[in-house]
From TrEMBL:
Subcellular location: Membrane
Cross-referenced Pfam families: SSF (PF00474)
Domain of life: Bacteria
PANTHER family given in the database record: NA(+):SOLUTE SYMPORTER (SSF FAMILY), SODIUM/PROLINE SYMPORTER-RELATED
The entry's keywords: Membrane, Transmembrane, Transmembrane helix, Transport
Protein's UniProt name: Cation/acetate symporter
Topology with respect to the bilayer: Multi-pass membrane protein
CDD domains, sorted: SLC5sbd_u4
Species name: Tepidimonas ignava
GO molecular function: transmembrane transporter activity
TM region(s), chain numbering: 6-25, 73-95, 116-134, 154-171, 183-205, 248-270, 282-303, 420-448, 468-486, 492-512, 524-542, 571-590
Family: Belongs to the sodium:solute symporter (SSF) (TC 2.A.21) family.
Predominant cellular place of this UniProt entry's protein: membrane
Length: 617
């Protein structure tokens, strides 16, 4: 059966499953729509949370980023996983005990301020909308490659599928659909990883294969990858760090606290019956998330070796005519000259996967020296010996441009895996993007209908009309997200980082101070959120060129690129969070004290019922 037919069958079957679940689990009340009636089992909620958590960024981009960055890519593993631990331990149980539908509702009640609630809504909307652009883009890329349609058509189809199960099903439909999407995406991620690990190392578990020797040799996979990348001028895979160690630390923290502050995951903990269930579902979600996150480093390393081996015949990892990849032990041990012109694969002999991905524009070849071969190396290396060697070999620069987002999606094709595995990966990529898109749309919808319309505009709105408003808001959010996916803003490359930065600098500090401090006032919280939002947007937008100051270079506004101690805009959410905390406490110190009933509320949320009773406190 052809790859195209397999893809249509597998993707079509998963879409039919999602819609069928939505029809079965459609929402009939505001409780169903916002929090799935509050009766989701912890294991089910853990699986749905994992699907909500693992977006297109986790499924499609993370292994690609690790593959390109090497050791430095650990910021994503540490940041996103650490963020979940922060959320599970420091936020989720307390917010569930508070018992409200949304994050802005907690902020408004805790800080006894409608203004604080409205600022929370604004921060939530900006973070969620910027984050959803990446999901819709992932949907478009996956459709355009695997279903033979344009990325625009793919986004339209994705909008229709999300509409079918999110608008009618609400959180109840989204929850059970996300369970199915988790099963699809984790199988799609693990199955090709198992195949490739077995072929390269003889070890079926990729987590163990990453630390093993290449099959039939005494050469470690990571040692070979280090040697290959060093020879091509990229730097050792196991030690490479992008930027300074300070920036790496700030980047990791920004991802951690930004992840913990993303509202579409926080709201998942409102869907379980009890606080104990919130803790249990957090534990289950960590188990389900770990299956993918512990596999990603192996996928990234093996994909990088496979990719280079495909276009450079001297590497020793090559396609097997019988199917899959194989290790050529003699070539692995030979340590041949990887920059020799004859080592590069002739363009006319490029494999079928290469031709298919060229059509997407995410893989590009430019024959700079006119020899008809694919020279892939780092022509921007600072290693003068590599530069001299390349020049002596007649190379005129790197000729292959590889977008990091294709690594996971193309990996099964590079390894010549069966068509059904490739089709499964397509379905997994779509499941990851759609599951998170649905969660984000739910957060946007509830913020508009519950926090703005019911909370500020019409407090007396009936449940029926509030439910209708929620569905209309969902439709509006789907249209806006689709439009942004079709027409991404000029700073689209930084939208995901911007989403994490906004959540890190606004929502996370507000929640932490709201739970663990009885001294932060409403005016302090508002001032802190606005200060954190402003400094983060200012720094990021200055780098992305969004300011329109006549006669002024954008970066001049902040003293040059990465001018604040070498911190990149992707890592600046940490600075924004620090500013938020400082401003909030400073303003609170000169404000009227927090009312006694609010202090009692904080105490009741944080301290277990009956605590201290045995000792008379």
């Amino acid at each position: 059966m052809s790859l195209q037919l397999w893809t249509y069958l597998v993707v079509g079957a998963t879409f039919a499953l999602y819609i069928g679940i939505a029809v079965w689990a459609r929402a009939g009340s505001t409780s169903d729509f916002y929090v799935a009636g509050g009766g989701v089992h912890p294991v089910t909620n853990g699986m749905a949370t994992a699907a909500d958590w693992m977006s297109a960024a986790s499924f499609i981009s993370m292994a690609g980023l690790i593959s390109n960055m090497g050791y430095g890519g650990a910021v994503f593993l540490m940041g996103w996983t650490g963020g979940y631990v922060l959320l599970a331990c420091l936020l989720a149980p307390y917010l569930r005990k508070f018992g409200k539908f949304t994050v802005p509702e907690f902020i408004g009640d805790r800080y006894y301020s409608q203004t604080a609630r409205n600022v929370g809504v604004i921060c939530l909307l900006v973070a969620s909308i910027t984050y959803i652009i990446g999901q819709m883009t992932g949907v478009g890329v996956t459709f355009s490659r695997f279903l033979g349609v344009s990325s625009e058509t793919g986004i339209y189809i994705g909008q229709a599928i999300v509409f079918a199960y999110a608008v009618f099903g609400g959180m109840k439909g989204i929850t059970y659909t996300q369970v199915a999407q988790y099963i699809v995406l984790i199988l799609a991620y693990l199955v090709p990883a198992l195949f490739i690990s077995l072929a390269l190392t003889g070890n079926v578990l990729p987590q163990l294969g990453l630390g093993s020797n290449l099959a039939g040799t005494d050469v470690a996979l990571l040692a070979k990858l280090d040697q290959v990348l060093n020879d091509l001028g990229f730097g050792a895979y196991t030690t490479s760090v992008a930027g300074s160690k300070l920036n790496m630390f700030f980047y990791t923290v920004s991802l951690m606290i930004g992840t913990a502050g993303l509202p579409h995951v926080i709201v998942r903990f409102f869907t379980v019956p009890k606080v104990a269930d919130a803790r249990a579902s957090a534990g289950w979600a960590l188990v389900f998330i770990a299956l993918l996150y512990t596999t990603a480093p192996a996928v990234g390393a093996m994909a990088r070796l496979n990719l280079i081996g495909t276009v450079n015949t001297a590497v020793g990892v090559e396609p097997d005519p019988a199917g899959g990849v194989r290790v050529n032990a003699d070539k692995v041990k030979a340590n041949a000259d990887l920059l020799a012109p004859e080592a590069a694969l002739p363009y006319e002999q490029r494999p079928e996967w290469f031709k298919r991905w060229e059509k997407t524009g995410l893989l590009k070849f430019e024959d700079k020296n006119g020899d008809g071969r694919i020279q892939f190396y780092n022509d921007k290396t600072k290693n003068e010996a590599i530069k001299a060697k390349a020049e002596a070999a007649g190379l005129k620069g790197n000729e292959l441009t590889v977008n990091a987002d294709i690594i996971v999606l193309a990996n099964p094709e590079i390894a010549l895996l069966p068509n059904w595995v490739i089709a499964l990966v397509a379905a997994g990529g779509l499941a990851a993007a759609l599951s998170t898109a649905a969660g984000l749309l739910m957060a946007i919808s509830s913020a508009i209908s519950h926090d703005l319309i019911k909370g500020a505009i019409n407090p007396n709105i009936s449940e029926k009309n509030e439910l209708l408003a929620g569905k209309i808001a969902m439709v509006f959010a789907i249209i806006v997200s689709g439009y942004l996916g079709l027409n991404p803003p000029g700073f689209a490359a930084g939208t995901v980082a911007l989403a994490f930065g906004i959540a890190a600098s606004t929502i996370f500090p507000a929640l932490m101070m709201g739970i663990f401090s009885k001294k932060v006032t409403g005016s302090g919280a508002v001032a802190g959120m606005l200060a954190g939002l402003f400094v983060t947007l200012f720094y990021v937008f200055a780098h992305k060129g969004i300011f329109f100051v006549k006669g002024t270079e954008y970066l001049d506004l902040i003293g040059g690129a990465n001018s604040f101690f070498g911190i990149t805009p992707e890592a600046f959410g940490t600075v924004g969070a620090i500013v938020n905390f400082i401003v909030a406490f400073a303003v609170s110190a000169v404000s009227k004290p927090v009312p006694a009933h609010i202090q009692d509320l904080v105490e009741s949320v944080r301290v277990p019922k009956g605590a201290g009773a045995a000792v008379g406190h």
